[in-house]
Amino acid sequence: MAKFFAHESSYIDAPVSIGDDTKIWHFCHVLSHTTIGERCSVGQNCVIGPNVTLGNQVKVQNNVSIYDGVICEDDVFLGPSMVFTNITNPRSHIVRKDQFKQTLLKKGATIGANATIVCGVTIGAYALIGAGAVVTKDIPDHALVYGNPARQYGWVSCAGNRLDFDDRDCAFDEEEKASYVLCHGKVIRQE
User: What does residue 97 show for φ and ψ, rounded to 5 degrees?
Assistant: First the structure.
């Protein structure tokens, strides 16, 4: 049996899977067929599910709703009041639950406060989406994007620091003590 904390004001439907050391704070609702990994933190007033997958060490800040079809890999950060959509052409008088689109956030991606992620996109590993951005298309690994619509303005390291590539397309992150190479429009961390 997993050992997690859920505040008494929150509702956990069945069946769900919640990993060890996960914390679910005030006024949350976890709907059926949702999987939440280990060491996650879910802030106040969040709705997760149904049919959502959160990896390990995912941090969900206050006031976030994560809808059917969203997959967050390990170490994803969802900023306060950011928004997911789950259908591209909603109408209150037409039921389109069979048209929900999958949205994938890869390992280490960060979504800033009040950003909107339009359904059906993939956010690359370690990408950084700025506060208030509106993401309407796929975002590459390590990309720094912001604005409405979101556009790429640079690259970031695994630690979230801006990468300044030299004339040989090499960059170094002082915090990580790691080198990066920009090759054919892709950032590669050197091991």
Answer: -60, -20
Nearest residue to 147 via CA among 160, 163, 161, 129: 129
Question: Is the entire prediction scored with pTM above 0.90?
Answer: yes
Contacts of 146 (CB under 8 A, 6+ apart): 112, 129, 130, 131, 132, 133, 153
- CATH numbers and ranges of domains, the chain: 5-163 (2.160.10.10)
Cβ(8)–Cβ(26) below 8 Å: no
Asked if 86 and 104 touch (Cβ cutoff 8 Å), the reply is no
Residue 152: partners with Cβ closer than 8 Å, 6 or more residues away: 139, 140, 143, 144, 145
Helix, strand, coil shares of the chain as percentages rounded to 5? Answer: 0, 40, 60
Closest C-alpha to 171, from 145, 142, 150 = 142
Using one digit for the tens of pLDDT, what is the confidence trace for 100-122?
Answer: 999 999 999 999 999 999 999 99
Structure tokens at 30: 């976890």
